[in-house]
């Protein structure tokens, strides 16, 4: 009996480790189970949440857009604060004429982008990895070439006393045309994230996300107000530079081209806050230098 009891006790001790090892195994198996999708309160599937994200993004852009127009209107009002001596010229006619001229200049430069992109994409195919950078730099250069041509026309038409106001309003027109295009492109980009059209615009979303470095849904629309302020100051400043001395076309073209390269190629590296504030500082300096050249802030 003693041997049988020892045998039973030995068997029971051998079974205990086996039962102990079953618990971790079941825990590991449970950890590999996929959890179900958990929606926000009041939503029952992913499609409804994607629609909610689209609606919130659309509302934010709708709220931010009027502020962009307020910024442009503020620059228009600012022109009345400058003391300029005019020859017998219809000032209101001069303003709106140059405003339209500036808007048309930006539109022409914008139309040139497509042929330029075709040329530089061919360079990229043959192994020129610097093609995208050259394309972006060329876009800024082309804009300044058109600006130079428009401003040389102004120099022949108006007296020296009227040059500042003409250059200022040409810059506002330039910035307004760019701002309107920016607003339209923003709403088109928001539409790409609509739930019903999500699979239709996959390539477009990937392209814009490569430029921004993140999805458009993660970027506040209020950044756009700051960007339009910066670029409007840049256009006014560059217009004043070139009007003051045509040789200032070269630094204006270089700065403009480099800013385009940063925004179109380096944004994922520097991120949006650093790029936005850096651009604002540069364009503010450009704007103030342009005013100082004509003695408007001294």
TrEMBL record:
UniProt keyword annotations, A-Z: Membrane, Transmembrane, Transmembrane helix
Coiled-coil stretches noted in the UniProt entry, renumbered to this chain: none
Record's compositionally biased regions (Low complexity): 12-27
Lineage: superkingdom: Eukaryota
Feature: compositional bias, Polar residues: 1-11
Region (Disordered): 1-29
Transmembrane parts of this sequence: 62-82, 94-111, 123-142, 162-184, 236-259, 274-294
Identification of the protein by name: 16393_t:CDS:1
Record lineage: Eukaryota, Fungi, Fungi incertae sedis, Mucoromycota, Glomeromycotina
